[in-house]
Design goal:
This protein is of the alpha+beta class. Helix content is about 30%, strand content about 30%.
Length: about 200
């Protein structure tokens, strides 16, 4: 028991004991609350234990024949490629996609087509929260019939079992930017991964 809670005579009455117990309990709750609030990112987090997928590259084009391909990067660094998958689940208009839908998307991929260095992956995962705080620009029309290329990261709500898609960059018919320097860093890294995969194929 803290020294300043004991009277000078060293003898505590029953009321004093109860009062001191409540004081300690209240202090404990305040301390624990501060620990959980420090650096908190709200209900969404980058969950290293439950989160399966962290990054996604996706290309879609409906001009001159339907094209839909891309890849996902999981927690181990495995890259899962897909090409015209059936029953693919896209994030909704608010950027949410459920765990069940994400798991279905993983099963719809064709194969593990590449891997990324785990140490590099961990460092890039550490940038997702900062990227989520960037300002998303209004779409700017730049091309015709080029489709859309989207680079994304994901955060995870373990309570609701839902992913939150974080737009890093969109290119193609419409360009959309994320103002966060972390988002730019992640986009450039994902583009380098994509370029290396194209060279090896």
């Amino acid at each position: 028991m803290p020294r300043n809670l004991i009277p000078a005579g060293g003898i505590l009455t029953l009321n004093e004991i109860v009062k001191n117990i409540w004081t300690v309990l209240i202090l404990s709750v305040v301390i624990l609350s501060c620990v959980h609030c420090e650096g908190g990112a709200g209900i969404y987090e980058v969950a290293e234990t439950e989160q399966a997928i962290y990054f996604q590259y996706e290309y879609i084009n409906h001009a001159w024949g339907y094209q839909h391909n891309g890849w996902l990067i999981d927690s181990s660094g495995a890259v899962y490629c897909f090409n015209k998958p059936e029953n693919w689940h896209h994030a909704d208009s608010l950027g949410f996609i459920s765990v069940a839908q994400m798991e279905s998307n993983i099963l719809s991929t064709d194969s593990v087509c590449n891997t990324v260095d785990k140490e590099v992956l961990v460092s890039k995962i550490g940038l997702i929260e900062a990227a989520s705080k960037g300002r998303i620009s209004e779409p700017v029309h730049e091309m015709y019939d080029a489709g859309g290329t989207v680079y994304s990261a994901f955060m995870y709500n373990s309570k609701e079992k839902v992913y939150k898609k974080i737009l890093l960059k969109q290119l193609g018919d419409f360009r959309i930017d994320n103002s966060s320097p972390a988002a730019k860093n992640l986009y450039q890294w994902l583009e380098s991964v994509n370029s290396l995969m194209r060279e090896n194929n």
